[in-house]
Sequence to fold (496 residues):
Amino acid sequence: MKILVVDDSRMIRQTIRKELEDGGYEVIEAKNGLEGLARLATPSPPDLITLDIEMPKLNGFDTCQKFRGERYSRFFSHCPDNRMPVIFVTGNDTMEDRKRGFQLEAADFISKPFPKGAILSAVNKVLKPAQLVQGMTALVVDDSGVARHIVCEYLRREGLAIIQAEDGLEALEILDLSKAKAEQTELKMDPIVLSQVIQTSVNSLGQMAAGKSQTIQLQDPCEGAIIMGNASGLGRVFNNLLSNAIKFTPDNGTIHLTIEPSPPGNIQVRVVDTGIGISEDKIPYLFDQFTSTSQSGTSGEVGTGLGMSIVKEILEKHGVPIEVESKTGKGTCFTLTFPLTDEAPIDKPVVSAPSGPAAEKKQLNILLAEDNPVNQKLAEKMLTKSGHRVTVAGNGKEAFLKYSDSPEKIDLIFMDIQMPEMDGLESTRTIRAFEKEKDVPKVPIVAMTGQAMDGDREKCLETGMNDYIVKPINKTIVLDIVEKWTSGAPQEIHSI
Fold:
């Protein structure tokens, strides 16, 4: 592959040439924008340009503007959509320059002096993306077996391993299990109030139970018992147990959660439903991910049975045993036994949510940065039905551009983490740098991510985000977050 290096500095051109040639690329040079344009309009144009911004005669931005036009784009039939990939290189890295570069569809933006390997890495990312997926695993979700076969064959040729799922529920369970498996180190354990974790799950799944006219009763005579645990992981445990209880309990049924002392120095949680029960022959295999114990719920709900293996993975990391009692047609009882601790829960930091005109609005302008079309539609529908105006950005770069065009018009940003071109963390850093440079108030940014690994929350907050929620998103939680960060009242940083 051929790279055109355009820079008025001979030393920079030689540095980039050596790095790219060592990486296996052919390199041609131009010392200014006019010479670069001449080298593009040939029968054998390059595959990518590294383009200096500050150059005599014709700067990098004007050069890019010219070859984006029809006169030159006809030479780029070998490029996707006839758009030549560009990596801007500059010694004067400002937010205005980055914004203009993104508007010209830059693939990347590198500041001088750049570390060794930075140029080659950026070029490889654009021209050799297949190398980035070698050895990775793809999850292919479609209810059509023919469609899955076509997609899987293509991905296998690209070097990916394949996992298949027939529907979204099966996909979510597979992803959740993958997260639990990926946690190679021990979960970070903190003193937590167990009833608060359970109450969060009850609140999150209340609408699901209401849809079947069910009642969820939580009894806690222990008055805030404290255990050592990972709140995020245990939230997944109780979400799974409670959602199964709802699924397998008939309409108008009741689900009981009790927290009670269990000497010596322990506390027991029981999740009891009055549902269809589990047959005796399936109970020994209930937590085995390799044996299917899935069955349909009382309203036809489907599942894979993988959820219980996730529960087992997390509880084993906590050293917490789980027991099962069940009778077909009568219901099921899960009992979890936790050791108590004398340590006090860690106080959470308190920050001030935004105040002023934006906080007082009932109808808010919300920027949604999300690359998945299904997640876009779901979140947009939740927010617009509540009376808010939603602007959608398909990646972090687009989110930054839309925000920086009119920062005063955006009241809150929901930011996905993993997106193409620019991820949510980098987009947040760019937004915060823009706000600092332009001296504009900080907009609340809430991470919306499918990752729930230990440390992810801290990474988001350190980047400059204000809050963190885990997909699949829940309408009640989303609207609570909107209210929280636009109400003007002091708020705790937390994750859901």
Notes: The longest strand covers residues 254-262.
